[in-house]
Amino acid sequence: MGKKTLVPEEKWEGLRHAMEEAAGTRKTSKTPGLLPAAEGEAPRPERRKKPGAMEESKKERNGEKEKEKKKKKKEKKKEKEKKKKKGKKGKGKKGKGKKKKGKG
Amino acid sequence: MRKITVINQKGGTGKTTTAVNLGAALSEIGREVLLVDLDPQAGLTESLGVETSGRPTVAEVLTREAEPREAFHAFPHLTVLPSSPVLAETEKRILRERPSDYPLALKDALAGMRGFDFVIVDCPPSLGALSLMGMVYSGSLLIPLQTQYMALNGLEKILGMVKTIREAGFPIEILGILPCMYDVRTSLSRQVEEHLRETLRDKVFRTVIRQSVCLAEAPARSKDVLSYQPGGRGAEDYRALAQEVLRHG
């Protein structure tokens, strides 16, 4: 049977790494772009979108904006037509109530 | 003058035992040794039976209220700069008064000191301001390490701190890691020692401090292990360590 390992291999790897750094034989890798801005350097502009911009762009992608516009147009048309109809009915009612009297 | 700081933030790893007995082993072969107790628990001071009442200690030396020589307690070839619980308050005071350069407090206080071949500093079981002062003073660390799993986590933290201190501009090196409380009967002790050597190679002392009752008994008699049980296992191990430190240069 093989020898039972009581301390995991990762632990030793971590220690080796820590010792190399402590002894100065290993340089820590730095992710480019994460370095702090040097003195006198202009602060980097923040890339921040307007609140709700994400949702808007999504709608654009899906063509939902155009659909909404079309819907609104339709609704407006419907309202106009209703108003027109209402107006005609009113006249009609008035007309119905009047009876033409014969001349003689 | 060689300076060595004995450090490990974990308690009970053998820091004080190592500082006392390495100092005793070096003095046995005729080297002049100064032991600095930088722990407010004053374990080193007590283990050698140094009486501090009414006398200055390392606390007053750090605040420059006393000269180092006023606080020294001398044995043949071995001098002790003792500590007392007052040191805990002194640490806070130094942090208030020297917020930017407190790590240099011990270095400044012992600057210009002559007449010793070795200065061995015993640190408290923490990585606080006092330990930092000890590390910056000597620039050379001896790390006693129990041959147990949990001790390895502590070692990673110390190594991280060493990196930070180096990056802050203080020259500092690891003299060596000393496997302590080695129990030859347990496979964990054997495995930890084997893997330590495989992983950290020349940063691990060849000497191993074996578990021994006499190392625990000697402080109760206010003695170092070399005078308590000269032919014992503990004395043998610390003599070997002294030889290795001398060879190290």
Give the secondary structure arrangement, pairings included.
The complex is a heterodimer of chains A (104) and B (249).
Chain A: H1 9-23, H2 53-62, H3 64-97
Chain B: E1 2-6, H1 15-28, E2 33-37, H2 43-47, H3 58-62, H4 68-71, E3 73-75, E4 78-81, H5 86-97, H6 105-109, E5 118-122, H7 129-138, E6 140-146, H8 149-167, E7 173-180, H9 187-200, H10 213-217, H11 225-228, H12 233-248
Helix pairs in contact in B: 1-12
How many separate helices of chain A?
3
What's the level 1 CATH class of chain B? Alpha Beta
In angstroms, what separates the terminal alpha carbons of chain A?
131 Å
- CATH homologous superfamily assignment of chain B: P-loop containing nucleotide triphosphate hydrolases
End-to-end separation of chain B in angstroms reads 11 Å
- Strand portion of chain A: under 5%
Question: Roughly how much helix do the residues of chain B carry, as a percent range?
Answer: 40-55%
Helix segment tally of chain B: 12
Task: Give the SSE order of chain B as H and E letters.
Answer: EHEHHHEEHHEHEHEHHHH
Strand content of chain B: 5-15%
Approximate shape of chain A: rod-shaped
- Total count of strands of chain A: 0
Using the coordinates shown, work out and report the CATH topology of chain B.
Rossmann fold
